[in-house]
Amino acid sequence: MTDFTMIKGDDGVAIITWDVPGKSMNVLSAEGPQQLNALIDDALADAAVKGIVLTSGKEGSFAGGMDLNVLADIRENVGDNPAEGLFGFIMQMHGLMRKIELAGMDFKTKKGGKPIACAMPGTGAGIGLELPLCTHRIFVADNPKARIGLPEIMLGIFPGAGGTTRLIRKLGLMGASSFLLEGKLVDPAKAKAAGIIDEVVADPLAAAKAWVLSATDADLVKPWDAKGYKMPGGAPYHPAGFMNFVGAAAMVHGKTQGAFPAAKAMLSAIYEGAMVDFDTALRIEARWFVNILMNPSSSAMIRSLFVNKEALEKGAVRPVDVPDQRVRKVGVLGAGMMGAGIALVSAQAGIEVVLIDRDQAAADKGKAYTEAYLDKGIARKKVTAEKKDKMLSMITATPDLDHLKGCDLIIEAVFEDPAVKAEMTKKVEAIIPEDCIFASNTSTLPISDLAKASVRPEQFIGIHFFSPVEKMLLVEIIKGAETGDRAVAKALDYVRQIKKTPIVVNDARFFYANRCIIPYINEGVMMAGEGVSRAMIDRAAQMLGFPVGPIQLVDETSLDLGAKIAKATMAAMGNAYPRSIADDVTFWMVDEGRLGRKSKAGFFDYDDNGKRLGYWPGFNDKYPLLENQPELIEVQHRLLFVQVLEAVRAIEENVLMDIREGDVGAILGWGFAPWSGGPLSWLDMVGTPWAAERCDQLQAKYGDRFACPPLLREMADKGESFYERFAPDAEAA
User: Fold this and answer.
1) Which of 398, 440, 531, 675 could form a disulfide with 626 if both were Cys (CB 3.0 to 4.6 A apart)?
2) Which residues contact 313 (CB under 8 A, 6 or more apart)?
3) How far is Cα 169 from Cα 100, in angstroms, rounded to an integer?
4) Which residues contact 672 (CB under 8 A, 6 or more apart)?
């Protein structure tokens, strides 16, 4: 397979085209660097070649990064010293990049090189920007949909093919920080304004060819290779630079709470590399990159947030024999916050929407949610007036159920009451076409029970959105006892249309996500009731990588909702319900009128605008603080294990049918410690034998909610890991 080809023009310009067969966007394969190296050698040695242009054969994009399986294969197959193998591969990449950068020039005189430009038809991310950065001039198509940047940090690694070192030397620490430390992606115009690329043009290939034919020796010398180079903003040993690096370290720790290894490794590579010459800095970058590649966190994050997420989005769990079920017209029942959000994302995807509520005013209010969202986009110059008009025209807000007649999917988002939902199901099914799929957006009520109100239970399914709908990436699809394959395919195809990530689970109380989230909240509230500092509980969670601690989370979601769920669960489970101090605390807080942020009073105090002022002191009058607070790790283990054990039980009970969905769903659904790759990846990381032993310790101290599930016990006895035992089918993956 040939990824790179070269054509030498009569004008003296050699065009090297990157075009990976079978891929919609170029990625760097294991063979790619050798192919490109050979072509560069050929062009530099050919006296007839005056300059080189590197471009892409893909319309609208240059490249999307490195094939991450290459690094995994090197690590697994290199022998007894995978770190040495990875370091050797990375240094070969640096050698290729440096060859392009120096382009055959005499390093002392900086003369005699051949200009090499990059013509990017559009998006360049990861290696798709690292490679252009080592050329002498970057031309990008004037395409506002294109994205330029280095997003590796979002996958648990960092730019390790010279991108970190080059961008720091090009922009300085402050200029590069948002692109390196936050993985920011921007359009070409903003990339040029930031100094990442050089030109935004209508025809980048023509502009690049013209430039290489007119370039001088001085145009080929990178700033860091020029005599007297000084890093923008100052190096670490410079007074101004020192302050920048101190600030960057504080910023990274503030954002990550020390939980993400890649961020710390990248900052180390930046700091150490900034104090030495460029080529030594590349070796430092390579060593830190290998360090993070050898960290189990990086492989777990790559597997969950890249490989598995992509597989699920492409239909890994979709019924194979069902034809395309793309949604043309969706009816949304209920124009409250959830229904309004569902209408918004559906219209965004070009789907016709009928938004139903009890009267015209309520329906119009739901549609106004989309209008307000688009107005914010216009104010930020991300949305045009034409786009706003088009999207709003896609939504019909009405109380008239007859408008649902042409729908092929209904999503019910009415009040969480089985009787209300049943009444609406019967009314709507009398109107909609017989082949229309009916979905409920319930977050807790069993789908099989709700489907009893339907005359077509095989066409009844759960589609559980997370709030706010337009921001949350996950959608949980729930199969009832009688749900058929076409309903599952319809739900999956719809989720793909609205560009979200689906997981498919079997029916059970709280499904998958909420059965893990609720114990997380309850454990936090329980500890607060026991006298553990609420600040410690929240910080312990954030130091694990959770975006929000359980005490803050329950204030955001409201305590009366928690009380309602607890009472409904008590009624359903009867004597089997494991009542705890968490229930006592929640019911007391509700009786006190402290419902959370919405009432401007909860575990926190709030000002009149709803801004948190601090933890409410009065709570500890009722539940005094322990004189001896527990160790941080003890608090963290309680918060972790109540979630991961529910994930294991979900596999035991066949609620989770694919291990990938357990990890991807946890990270995208409620922000479970992304550095871990998800709860099941975390168990593999720490080892099932240790996890089972820790369960026994926690159970003895805190109760049966920490009892080791039989599946985990069996795997611990055999020394098994979850991704060994439940490895996804190779064809599906």
Assistant:
1) 531
2) 496, 501, 502
3) 17
4) 516, 546, 643, 666, 678, 679
Q: Is 299 among the residues known to form the active site?
A: no
Residue 378: is its pLDDT beyond 80? yes
Q: What does the pLDDT look like over 521-566, one tens digit per residue?
A: 999 999 999 999 999 999 999 999 999 999 999 999 889 888 888 8
pLDDT in tens, 494-532: 999 999 999 999 998 889 999 999 999 999 999 999 999
* Type and span of the H or E element at 465: strand 460-465
* The dihedral sign for the CA sequence 244, 247, 249, 255: negative
d(CA 550, CA 563): 15
Residues in the chain: 733
Both tokens of 631, joined, read 């160790």
DSSP 236-280: TTSHHHHHHHHHHHHHHHHHHTT--HHHHHHHHHHHHHTTS-HHH
* Token representation of residue 312: 């699920």
Exposed, middle or buried by CB within 10 Å (0-12, 13-18, 19+), for 417?
Answer: exposed
Q: Is 534 strand, coil or helix?
A: helix
| 3 state DSSP class of 562 | helix
Q: Is 398 helix (H, G, I), strand (E, B) or coil?
A: strand
Please choose, from the candidates 445, 379, 385, 386, the residue with its C-alpha nearest in 3D space to the C-alpha of residue 412. Answer: 445
| Structure confidence at residue 78 (pLDDT) | 66
Residue 732 has pLDDT above 50, yes or no: no
Separation of alpha carbons 59 and 602, rounded Å: 53
Is the per-residue pLDDT at 255 higher than 80? no
**Active site annotation includes 371:** no
Per the listing, tokens 């009624």 go with: 571
pLDDT tens for each residue of 387-445: 999 999 999 999 999 999 999 999 999 988 899 999 999 999 999 999 999 999 988 88
> Would you put residue 77 in left (φ > 0), alpha (ψ -120 to 50) or beta?
alpha
Cα dihedral 451→454→458→463 (10° resolution): -50
pTM: 0.86
Kindly give the residue spans of alpha helices, DSSP state H, lying in 656-703: 659-670, 679-686, 688-702
Nearest to 315 by CA among 69, 495, 447: 495
Sign of CA dihedral 681, 682, 685, 688: negative
514 catalytic residue (yes or no): yes
What's the CA gap between 300 and 686, in Å, rounded?
A: 12
Residue 396 bridge partners (DSSP) = 354
3-state helix, strand, coil in the chain (%, to 5): 55, 15, 35
Q: What is the pLDDT of residues 170-199, one digit of tens each?
A: 999 888 888 998 889 999 999 999 999 999
Q: Give the CB-side neighbour count of residue 574, counting CA atoms within 13 A.
A: 1
Q: Which residue has the higher pLDDT, 86 or 365?
A: 365
Give me the residue label for tokens 């959608």.
475
Residue of 56, 297, 298, 443 with catalytic role:
443
Label residue 1 by pLDDT band (50, 70, 90): low
95 contacts 159 by C-beta, under 8 angstroms: no
The residue annotated as part of the active site, out of 514, 522, 533, 681, is 514
- Compute CA distances 168 → 32, 233, 264, 449, 467, whole Å: 26, 10, 16, 58, 37
Whether 94 is a known active-site residue: answer no
Rg from Cα positions in the chain = 28
Which residue in 244, 297, 440, 464 is the catalytic one? Answer: 464
